[in-house]
TrEMBL record:
Signal peptide stretch: 1-17
Organism: Roseovarius nanhaiticus
Keyword Signal recorded: yes
InterPro entries in the record: SoxW, Thioredoxin-like_fold, Thioredoxin-like_sf
Signal is among the record's keywords: yes
Keyword annotations: Signal
Protein name per UniProt: Thioredoxin-like domain-containing protein
Coiled coil regions, renumbered to chain: none
Domain called Thioredoxin-like fold: residue spans: 46-129
CDD domains reported for this sequence: SoxW
One Pfam family hit: Thioredoxin_2
Organism superkingdom: Bacteria
């Protein structure tokens, strides 16, 4: 039966490269399997010249499924994430222990509750430096709550990677995204 489902997925979504893990979550080749000590993950991301992302998902989430099948399956999106981000996946209802930046050790589900995350997928984008008294939620430079299309997703990852949240240009994410939509409509690919 699993072979039939896999074959049907390949026919329906030829670029779909994620697999389902034992926890029921989609696994991409650019996701990292770590000990979920966020300070260590941040140090490793920095050593690789990448940005740390915490991606919170749950089993059976139709929006997570949509993101993996329609957005993360696109080569432009997946290659950008792979090249620029260190992605750690968290299960909204999981029991695996996480060590938050503030040193607190708690289960994935308790961490998600602590961070105020109610919906999946939720993507937390972290800065290169986090104070030892901060949590992942308080340190995050951006939060992407929910499923979005490929353009919005790629724009959010780009906006964070280029540190546009630090710029004094007055171009917050919404203005940046609106400009990128217009540029794509005009045929610009920069």
């Amino acid at each position: 039966m699993k072979r039939l489902i896999a074959l049907l997925l390949l026919v329906a979504f030829p670029a779909f490269s994620a697999t389902l893990g034992d926890d029921g979550l989609h696994k991409q080749d650019w996701m990292r399997d770590t000990f979920k000590d966020l300070s260590e993950d941040l140090a490793e991301a920095n050593a690789e010249g990448k940005r740390l992302v915490v991606m919170v998902e749950q089993r059976g989430c139709i929006y997570c499924d949509k993101m993996h099948k329609e957005v993360f399956s696109r080569e432009d999106v997946s290659s950008y994430i792979r090249d620029n981000f260190f992605v750690v996946q968290i299960n909204l209802h999981g029991d695996t222990e996480i060590t938050d930046f503030d040193g607190e050790v708690l289960s994935e589900k308790d961490a998600a509750r602590k961070w105020g995350l109610l919906f999946t997928p939720s993507i937390l984008f972290l800065p290169e430096d986090v104070e030892s008294d901060e949590t992942a939620q308080s340190a995050a430079v951006a939060l992407m709550p929910g499923a979005f299309g490929a353009g919005t997703t790629l724009d959010m990852f780009t906006w964070v990677n280029e540190k546009r949240y630090e710029l004094d240009s007055g171009e917050d994410f919404q203005r940046y995204h609106a400009r990128r939509i217009q540029e794509r409509a005009n045929g610009s690919t920069d």
